[in-house]
């Protein structure tokens, strides 16, 4: 007996519809704006030709990207649900797990905006050029720099492109080779970061994209060196979806919550310990002995974990909470000269700690590194 075929066949996309999609997009990828009527090269891959892709998947099967929808199979083959993509963007948006980033609403918005631009005098000059900063230091002996593919994916997801004629014309790269257990790594790393970012401040770039993976003290120092007069975009680093590891997530919709608490106010205290627990728990009792009796301020994510900060709204909420923390220190401990920062935070939160610390107006920020069972002083931002 012949086996019954149970798979639901997708509706065929007609030639007229395919031509309409190409015309609507003016032969350019809806996501990265690559010209698709011939071979070309973007920041991180070759583009042989364009592909008509589905937003809501062609079928309702488990392997159909964004396939859970009330749209019928015929409706899924209509122009409203189709968009023109380059091969690499098509592969990325349909990758396993990509629906967390490239969801139906995101793709529909980019299709609509791109096609609107085509109708408005075919003007595609809406992608913002940006300088790219890459900072990499050893974490537990390993250097893990953001790859070209990860940087490229994150940039075009945010409607950015590398400034200059060549992608590497506007790159500012810092690599710190020393181990995070070497006492000199903090001096070496901070000097390298300060020197490279000084060159960035003398550049004409108004927008800066930051990709960093290094020990927390160096990330805090990096944040302190970023010019607050520029449009700074700091990108995350997630463990899943390899090519999309530096892309912000679209969910959850509700920003993360961060709770602030402190010990009794003390008008004479010169040293205050600030424990920031986001990706894990900070045990302030493991601070160096001379800080055990110092006043403490705690900033803690309501839901701890490596994914506590997944969206740009989460990062905005953290930055706001961190500023409140600094204000709390100033109001409750007016004689404070040094804030001793013990932090278990994601990359972007560490950078934010440095960015939002006002060096000229607030107490010096002494940043610690977790070493075995204690926190060891690493560097001071002042």
UniProtKB/TrEMBL annotation:
<feature type="domain" description="SMODS-associated and fused to various effectors">
    <location>
        <begin position="199"/>
        <end position="381"/>
    </location>
</feature>
<protein>
    <submittedName>
        <fullName>SAVED domain-containing protein</fullName>
    </submittedName>
</protein>
<dbReference type="Pfam" id="PF18145">
    <property type="entry name" value="SAVED"/>
</dbReference>
<dbReference type="InterPro" id="IPR040836">
    <property type="entry name" value="SAVED"/>
</dbReference>
